[in-house]
Design goal:
This protein is an alpha+beta fold and about 160 residues long. It has two domains: about 40 residues, no CATH class; about 110 residues, no CATH class. About 40% of the residues lie in helices and about 35% in strands.
Amino acid sequence: MYLGKINGIKAILALSAVLSFAGCTPLEVRSEGSVIKLVQQELVISATGYAVISVQASDNPAQQRLMAIRASKLDAYRGLAEQVYGQYVDGSTTISDLVLSDDVYRAKVQGVIYGAQLVSINPVGEDTYEVTLSLRRSVVNDLRLLYLRHMQQLARA
């Protein structure tokens, strides 16, 4: 009975060790002749972009669909860049004679995205495409480190 408790404790320790590793590959834990397969998914971020088919600059419907897919993919990349690097927002308000006369906001996103994986391309309704991309957390961390190094180099120059 004591050996059964030790084997059970070993199995629990092995299982908790496996769960602490990051990665997307299947992992195996062997316990008393049985194999338990665990798939631990690495954390990912995702973004979805949209584009309308009919507003694409072409008279050919097939070309419009392809251009809408491309535009929605770029919109999804912009969404990933917002999540990785943040968004620069600039705003100004003009008041004349105690009346609001102008209120302007601008948003800017800038950054490099690599390693994004295409999750899906789907038509939404009759006139829109939706593209979803994902990015592994490890790639996000790499991108942020590269960005910080780049900013340090600019500060030194």
